[in-house]
Specification:
mainly beta; Neuraminidase; four-stranded antiparallel beta sheet; 54% strand; globular
Length: 250
């Protein structure tokens, strides 16, 4: 199916007057390279640097996405974790699910319920005083961002603090990076500011060896502040996905 994206620009292209035809849709999934996938207010979108395609509908905000055991999973305002390709619910929570991570082969989730669960058996591995906004694995350890603090999850050790909520974590070239409501992206270990934005940074991702960040509607290449996508609608968590994982979603 073709998709018309209204009032969205990619590298200056006005999607209001541009239609993706079937040949472009097929080409989007022919390469084995990883593509960028992100959540928004009405579903999940993929972006290969040139083309945007909506691949899944959801009835509310998609907050996080992750690949686990070769499958894409999503979670969000709908208080559920889905196996994306067939909409199978693998877990439900009593509040918004904002973060997913795979650690030691297991899926973990966290969110407004202020707990971090091992998803398969609902085992609580940590509790926080604030919403857990993101989870990341760094140097073999699981870390979580809750309120303005980054914790090593297993022992609750605080490894960094910010004066406003931390929304996003990523590992790039062996270093942990954080971003959030403070409109900056830090290399966490030494608090070095690597980029500043004019809005909150809600997502970080490593794609093709580069760090990227997203404000509410725009995705930047972090190192040189180049806008790669002006989406015009809310952007939430981003992840990279092998194209083969998405073939059942088109």
């Amino acid at each position: 199916m073709s998709l018309k994206l209204e009032q969205r620009k990619v590298f200056g292209i006005d999607w209001e007057n541009y239609r993706i035809d079937r040949r472009i849709e097929r080409n989007l999934f022919e390469s084995e390279e990883e593509i960028l996938v992100f959540g928004s207010k009405d579903g999940i979108y993929c972006f290969d640097g040139n083309n945007v395609k909506k691949i899944v509908e959801r009835d509310s905000m998609v907050w996080d996405l992750i690949v686990w055991n070769g499958e894409l999973y999503d979670a969000g305002h709908y208080k559920k974790i889905y196996r994306t390709r067939d909409n199978r619910v693998i877990s439900e929570r009593d509040d918004v699910v904002r973060a997913l991570a795979v650690w030691k082969g297991e899926l973990y989730d966290a969110g407004d319920y202020k707990k971090i669960y091992r998803t398969r058996d609902n085992r609580v591995v940590a509790e926080r005083d604030n919403t857990v906004w993101d989870l990341v694995v760094w140097n073999g350890e699981l870390y979580d961002a809750a309120g303005g603090k980054i914790y090593r999850t297993r022992d609750n050790r605080v490894v960094a603090e910010r004066d406003k909520p931390i929304y996003a974590l990523a590992v790039w070239k062996g270093e942990l990076y954080d971003a959030g409501n403070y409109r900056k992206i830090y290399r966490t270990r030494d608090n070095r500011v690597v980029a500043e934005r004019d809005a909150s940074v809600v997502a970080l991702v490593v794609w093709n060896g580069e760090l990227y960040d997203a404000t509410w509607t725009t995705i930047y290449r972090t190192r040189d502040n180049k806008v790669i996508l002006d989406f015009g609608e809310p952007i939430r968590h981003m992840c990279t996905v092998p194209r083969s994982v998405l073939r059942g979603l088109i």
